């Protein structure tokens, strides 16, 4: 302690020193450096003008005052501020009882308290001795310090408890709530009522004590933080076990009774291993630095309205933090902020355990939401989770944010373990959604957005709207293992990119059916595989069980599938594949194979036989019996190159589907393939409707074949031009069954020829090795002669009235075609040279007149113009000409002759 020994002002110095010591002891000092120096200057006026004195004071201040005076001091105690008849009693400075003097701070159902300090030491308590019929206990903290609460807060009856402290609130690991109603902890400046406000900032004005229900919380210009500390939840579950619900074995933390609301509203809200929970109630975590938050009371707790918040803060859950609103009734978790994050195994969970449907998890952020990582052993992911273990439905998950990131093994999931349906997942990420990275701690932990059914309830749907969607080796999926159906998946985006084994899939592994998938995008790019588990980048609707796969519909401007990527509707068991439709308004390009292998990039509907390990892992039959679905492709430009393939295929006993392609042009190059194949089933037909041209190059293939007892499929191609080169084939062959039929309609078929068997040339074959050969029909329609004929008039014209008498035949005139010029002798002949019409009469009598000839440039690019007159050249030849400056220069115009040989102007 600094000792000031000057005589002047000695008493004031002494009193100041005692006040300073007392203030530190009570934890109430909160003065700036300048205020402290001012007090000392008053104690000894002459020191105010002593420069060396100020240096010593500033040196002292830098070492002590900044540490103690510029930072709010956390007091250990509950102290009334004297502005209301609040009375605090304590015998040990550990446990505090809060009364009101003569109950004069009660108005109607509201009881008001005002504290200078409100902090509870570890193991301590603050007990409100309130009448049990009080509805709302409304408290403010005005002393300027953070409230450190590491003990029990208790109230009588079913009262709702409000605590506002603009300087911040910290709930320690031992903080507990024992109240009958809802709890609101906030760093708001005031609580507003219809007739005024109860302020924690303005203590000079007599406080408003209102009979009305609180309307809302008024946040200051830069509201302080609320933090909940703790050791995190514990659980007997792990994320590998998808067949059992999530179980929390330790819920120490802040908790209110069933059906109420637990709300923490601060500038920022942080759950650092903290736990906040309410059975079948409502958890609200809101980061709001400035603005008004409306409170809406209801029969099931309170809801909060953030529409009038001008400046949001961050909401963060980390280190195994937990927000839990599970129960037999409808619970909800609401997260609002600028940036919202869950990391290090943190979770928000609503589990429905009874007949009533669960409430929702709603996360709304003005900038970003991030769900990242796992706990320290990698088996509990950071998760947004709703699930049902009863007959009530699971709640939905609703996310609204410009940017959403799910990464490093984190998850957003809904599940059903009973007859209730799983919840939907609805995501509106206006700018971007990224799902990336396995857990670095546990590489088997995927990052995923998933809905799941393991019983009779249906899995929830997934609906995503975003500008850019990136899936990097992770997945968006819906699946069923039971009687219930898998959910549908709908994606609306400008740009969809799936890389390194990323997946969008709906699948059934049980009796229920798979869900449909619909993708609406401007551009779609699927590329590569995951080399850890060899999963291709995939859009997939599939069946691995008795249930049928869903349908897959893609609407896009452009689709690019590369390096082993797949667009897939398939079955591996007895369920049928769904249909697959791709509508691309610009183009589709499928190219390449898996790097280092022959496994192609694919658009496929199939029934596949898989390897033994995979079959044993999922209990699959050795041979699938389900039917393949149809594939329909509509696009102006379709390219298949470098081993890529589009196919309908059935490797089992079922039927293969029909492959329909409607396009302006198809290019197959470097082993590109359009195929349909069966083993013992039927089907496997190909129908190509091409407006401009079909080209096959470099061992490319169009085939509809059977490799077992089934018949070869049929191929139908309509295209004005079909060209094959470099050992490219069109094939409808069979092994034991009959060959298929090939029907080609084309005005020009180049390079391809029908042959009985395949050769090293460009073949068209429909043979069978042990059965009956198929048929090949090639239709090449010629030109319709009548299409170029004009209809003649029915009235006969008298030629005598149309031709001058001087030009009649008896004048010796004749009109003769010489060579190929002017008009072709045959309308189907090509004009190969320029000739002129000649008058064969002797016109030498007129040679004395001035005549000029026209030189014709055979290389001229100018159009041929119909003749409108003639001239006579130097040799007396008559030349038909057009009076058009584009054909001749002005000085080449000649006088013409009449039928008598007279020169006329």
Describe it for me?
With 905 residues, the protein is mostly beta strands. The chain has four helices and 65 strands. The protein has a 34-stranded mixed sheet that branches. The protein has an 18-stranded parallel sheet, with no helix packed on it. Strand 62 and strand 63 form a beta hairpin. Helix 1 (10-26) packs antiparallel against helix 2 (33-43). It is elongated and about 125 Å long. Residues 1-74, 785-789, 819-823, 829-837, 845-862, 884-897 and 899-905 have low confidence and may be disordered.
Short description:
The protein is mainly β and 905 residues long.
Any key phrases for this structure?
single chain; mainly beta; 34-stranded mixed β-sheet; 18-stranded parallel β-sheet; 6% helix; elongated
Using the alpha-carbon principal axes, give the shape. elongated
What is the typical, i.e. mean, pLDDT? 83
Overall number of strands: 65
Distance between the termini: 129 Å
Largest sheet: 34 strands, mixed
Low-confidence runs: 1-74, 785-789, 819-823, 829-837, 845-862, 884-897, 899-905
Count of DSSP-assigned helices: 4
Integer-rounded radius of gyration: 44 Å
Which structural class is indicated by helix and strand composition? mainly beta
What percentage of amino acids are in beta strands? 35-45%
Share of residues in helices: under 10%
SSE inventory with pairings:
Layout: H1 10-26, H2 33-43, H3 51-68, E1 78-80, E2 86-89, E3 95-100, E4 106-107, E5 110-118, E6 125-128, E7 136-141, E8 147-149, E9 152-155, E10 160-164, E11 169-171, E12 176-178, E13 183-186, E14 190-193, E15 196-199, E16 216-219, E17 226-229, E18 234-235, E19 248-250, E20 254-256, E21 261-266, E22 269-272, E23 275-278, E24 282-297, E25 302-312, E26 315-318, E27 322-324, E28 332-343, E29 347-352, E30 361-372, E31 383-388, E32 397-407, E33 411-416, E34 425-436, E35 448-453, E36 462-472, E37 475-480, E38 489-499, E39 503-508, E40 517-527, E41 529-530, E42 535-536, E43 538-543, E44 552-562, E45 566-571, E46 580-591, E47 602-607, H4 612-618, E48 631-641, E49 645-650, E50 656-669, E51 673-678, E52 683-696, E53 701-706, E54 715-718, E55 721-724, E56 729-731, E57 742-745, E58 748-750, E59 753-754, E60 763-765, E61 776-779, E62 869-872, E63 878-881, E64 896-897, E65 903-904
Parallel strand pairs: 3-6, 5-7, 6-9, 7-10, 8-11, 9-12, 10-13, 11-17, 13-21, 17-22, 20-23, 21-24, 22-26, 23-27, 24-28, 26-28, 27-29, 28-30, 29-31, 30-32, 31-33, 32-34, 33-35, 34-36, 35-37, 36-38, 37-39, 38-40, 39-43, 40-44, 43-45, 44-46, 45-47, 46-48, 47-49, 48-50, 49-51, 50-52, 51-53, 52-54, ...
Antiparallel strand pairs: 1-5, 2-3, 4-5, 14-15, 14-16, 16-24, 18-19, 24-25, 41-42, 62-63, 64-65
Helix pairs in contact: 1-2
